[in-house]
Amino acid sequence: MSFTTKEISRRIGVSTATLRYYDRYGICRPSRRDNGYRNYDENDIRVLKYAVALRHAGFRLEEIKRITDLFGQKPSKDCGMVAHTLVTQRVAELQDLIDYYEKAIDLLKISPPLMSSLESYLDHRDELDSLIDSVFDDIQSGVLAAPEGD
Description:
The chain is mainly α. The protein has helices at residues 5-12, 16-25, 42-56, 61-69, 77-114, 118-123, 125-140; strands at 31-32, 38-39.
């Protein structure tokens, strides 16, 4: 079964421009019809779903391409090492982000009660300062990118 770019766009949930970009970048190279239009098959859908999932997990396009390039190769120790290295690195980065957000949530949770009275603030000031320092250290270490415009 084959699909057009428009059909795949709806099925996968990415724009037709993204699909064309993935083709030019080499992430997914569908065959071409006689009229030059892209012709996607089930394997292309599998690659695209994987690419979209990796993109949402924070992988950069060059990393996605390295991983999807492995789909066309015979399984080997080298292929496994490349994929393992990229995935393991990203898992560590995501874990750092999770840790950061958990600290930030803790900070936000304790802030309102502490602001309810001076006495409450003074009683828990060290705890608040410690959380603020921890969140700030994570920001300084690059765990979280600065917001746009800062």
